[in-house]
Design a protein that fits this description.
Low-confidence stretches: none
Number of helices: 2
Oligomer: single chain
Mean pLDDT: 87
Helix content: 40-55%
Strand order of the largest sheet: 1-2
Shape: flat
Distance between the termini: 71 Å
Structural class: mainly alpha
Strand content: 5-15%
Number of strands: 2
Length: 114
């Protein structure tokens, strides 16, 4: 017996009956129904409010422990330092790749030459 499954949304009426939003594509016969209440969607306004409430909590906590945020100059300095490190790593990788190609050619030449 193969399992055929589909998902259809619906509404439970006040008398307890279930009204499906659309007909199912299942054949006639007994089915097992699993009901899961849909989470109430928050309006955009309430999502924005909860975000800013969370941010206020974070800022209040930071002030309470005397947190001093980094200055823009410090952020830019770190950014440029990291960017320099990345460029150095890329250049090192390119040098390593060139060295490997050179050694591979040397090995091929030594293998071919008697």
């Amino acid at each position: 017996m193969s399992l055929i499954e589909t998902t259809v949304e619906g509404t439970i009426e006040s008398d307890g009956t279930l009204v499906l939003d659309q007909p199912t594509n299942l054949p006639a016969g007994r089915v097992l129904v699993v009901l899961r209440q849909e989470a109430q969607s928050q309006s955009v306004h309430s999502v924005e409010e909860s975000f800013f409430e969370m941010m206020e909590e974070i800022w209040t906590s930071q002030r309470a422990r005397s947190h001093i945020p980094r200055t823009m100059a410090a952020v830019h300095e770190d950014h440029f330092e990291l960017q320099g490190q990345i460029e150095d790593e890329i250049e090192a990788a390119i040098r390593l790749q060139k060295e490997c190609r050179h050694r591979r050619k040397q090995t091929e030449i030594e293998t071919i030459s008697p």
